[in-house]
Amino acid sequence: MTAPFGRRLCEVAESKPSGGYRIFSLFDRAGPVPEPGQFYMLATADSWGEGGGRPFLPRAISVAETAPAKAGIRLDFLIEGVGPGTDRLCELEAGEGVWVTGPLGNSFSTPKEVNPDSAGAILVGGGIGIAPLAIWRRHLVEQGIPLRVLLGFRNQEHSGGLNELFCSGGSLCPDVRLASEDGHAGHQGYVTDLLATMLAGDDAGTAVVYSCGPPAMLEAVRAMCDDGGVDCELAMESPMACGFGACFGCAVPKPDGGYMRLCVDGPVVRGDAVAEVAHA
Amino acid sequence: MPELCGIELAHPVINASGTYDAIAARKVFGDQLLEEFPFSAFVSKTITPEPRAGNEPQRIWETPGGMLNSIGLPNKGLEGFLAEDLPQLAELPVPLIVSVMATDREGFARMVEAVAERDEVAGIELNVSCPNVHSGLIVGEQPAETEALMKTLRPLTDKPLIVKLTPNIADPGSVAVAAEEGGADSVSLINTLKGSAIDPSTGAPALAAGHGGLSGPAVRPIALQQLRAVRSVASLPVIGMGGISSGADAGEFLAAGASLVAVGTENFRDPRAGSRIAKELQIAAGAGSLPLPVLDLD
Questions:
Q1: Which of B268, B277, B279 to mutate to test the interface with A (most CBs of A within 10 A)?
Q2: Burial class of residue B118, CB neighbours in 10 A (0-12, 13-18, 19+)
């Protein structure tokens, strides 16, 4: 599947706060339905790079969910304001215009595609990284693939998106387990504690792990899967100016030397296809 | 009809080397890229004699009105380029200019000979923003080095040779004159300006290499003045670039004496920036609303 060539103007359908994050939706009348794990380059039509300031470059944001909408599709994004670009995206109001390029990058593979002997999926998300796992979870459920979802948060503020993306009828989806560093919900500690317990169980050997979250969490997941001989796919992030292979900024080291471009070779990468996930 | 050293072009907007990977873009956007190709000629990423992995991340950093990059010229090397990339770039619907770099004259000569003999290649751009391993001097910062390099390369091909000038010197005109006297057909300017940024979260340089090249609208006035400086002393055609984001910007470069313009960083924000800018230029020129000679863009 290819993306429409160039950027297109999409209208903001809705933008609302969720914890310390925001969720906003765009109407996309021209693009194909995105695959789980794919991302878009987003820049607001107004107040973006004008007057020679920042933000200047579009921002790469994973799609959290999509659904049919009038004359096209709806695209949902989970946003945390951490700099001039994401701060501007957090200010979006219904009716505003957003320049959209995409869907870009690759997508998650089903457990059977990763490993023909696999029996199910374990999704491991942290913070803002829960976003691509929401659309992936829905696809897995629709395909009847057994799954467990482990989500971790620093605190309640950083659990934005949980209610909108992983709850049904006001309560947490039954396959979801939580961890929080401050103990406000679920296991007090890291989400990787839950993963460790799960990988110690009988079914671990036949599961495929899918993960997205802060680099330190991703590296912990990658290392645990590597140690346990468990296949995993990581949805990664890297500084990206263009999203379509032009800028070579999003270089990620490969285990055998050299670099991949995360925008065209990712953002979903097999755990054994990356060197250690760089983290501060 | 705009032209580049005798090659007729559909419009005056091409890409800056290293800012568009047409092979990757075709995978992302499909054949629509070819049907609506944004540039009237395509300049490849710089290739070097041997493969290069490129620099360690962090490679890019957004700055006010632009960005810093220290990509490090990742490429497959001459052999890999000729075998794998050139056949794919030959499918583009526009003339192909190949950018080459080497660390000595012999290396440059080998690159130019190997690339020029391929029918798919219309012209060659020489990236001289690198040190000569023998002298330790950046070729493009030294008029004498530039002229000597051109005198080595000129006899090797009749195809257009374009020297990409560095802006990181006080007198770019002197290097343009040296390139012209050495037999260059054209010069292109500007390459990126040396710059750095500090990551406020660490207090350390934002780029792993410590410094990088600044591009984007922030550099445009500097690029225009360097273009004027070159124009005032050299008579060869100039490809102007540096922060061009709109037809109005491109018009300024044409008014200042550029024969063609190149779009770089704006491609990252808008994958069709080249055709958009060509269209904006055409409309503005037709309306007489830019200070430039009316160009026939059809």
A1: B268
A2: middle
